[in-house]
Amino acid sequence: MAPSAVAVERRPARLGEGLTGSDMKGPASGMEDGVGNGEDGEMAMIASLPMYDFPDLATHTDALWTQWSRLLREAGVDAPAALTRPQTDLLGHWRNDNLVVSQACGYPYRAWLHDRLALVGTFAYRDVAPKGRYRCVVISRAGDGRPLTEFECPSIAANGSDSLTGWVCLGAALADAGIGRVGAITITGAHSRSVIAVGSGTSDLAAIDAVTFSLLQRYRPYLTAAVRVIGFGPEVPGPPIVTAHPALAKALRETASEALRTCAATSLAALGIEAFVECSPEAYDPVIDLAERAGLVLSVPDSRSPQSALALP
């Protein structure tokens, strides 16, 4: 069945909102949006870990980077002492030629960035992604007792049409449930906003990155209390850790596990990270097939592709 026409509510997408919304903008660093100069006026090297970074966890993210950057510098890599926290245009940030390392979203990586960025690996997250692979959770309003298969032309909330979990995996999950068309699509700009949209009854369904949902359950339980999990998306590789410098990939891999070993246990527990996992770029190839399946159910509502300033997982 052909995709339906959709009505779209547009909200600006902002980094750091993967967990809570507008109050979860990441703290500013000395260099935003990948812009900064070194002592000689040259563009400074940058690093970021933006996918699950927000003020509640910022000190723990910084603690991990402190260990990792120290090990990289000891290995001769020009790693910045502090993380960059881009506030706009995450896709542009990932395209920055001075990017030492970042954590990206799987769909933009495979669709637009895999020829530009070298894959380092991914993190394994406790419970929800123990081997570096995970699923999204499909949610409905807590008071709605219907199983996923009984929704007809449901309204959808999505963090962005360039999101692997919030868009691509949602479309695949709907197709697997026999749902061939949807109603209104609200682009929320953040997984947390999608949870709010579903919990408030503004939208019927959303798909939330399992790591984000787990963190929400721990740190914002009042949000997840308003929704219930009624399904899961396909299993996909975790958010890829990438670098703009292929020559650095080996050093990044060799130091990642040691950084986790030397990072404070309290910080790793807060972040939910339990291991670094090596993986190949080919592991992300099925994402393209999933996107094609999703496109049979969901359609990008206007001429822009993707539709969001940036998308969180």
Instruction: Give the CA-CA distance, first to last residue.
Output: 28 Å
Q: What is the chain-wise order of helices and strands?
A: EEHHEHEEEEHEHEHHEEEHHEH
- Specify Rg, calculated over alpha carbons: 19 Å
| pLDDT averaged residue by residue | 85
Q: CATH homologous superfamily of the largest domain? A: Periplasmic binding protein-like II
Q: How much helix, percentage-wise, in residues?
A: 25-40%
Q: For this structure, what is the CATH class of the largest domain?
A: Alpha Beta
- CATH topology value of the largest domain: D-Maltodextrin-Binding Protein, domain 2
> What's the number of structural domains?
2
Question: How can the largest sheet be summarized?
Answer: 6 strands, mixed
Neighbour order of strands in the largest sheet: 1-8-7-9-6-10
Structural class assignment: alpha/beta
Strand content: 15-25%
Q: Uncertain spans, ≥5 residues at pLDDT below 50?
A: 1-41, 302-313
Overall, the morphology is globular
Oligomer: single chain
Number of strands: 13
CATH architecture of the largest domain: 3-Layer(aba) Sandwich
Number of continuous helical runs: 10
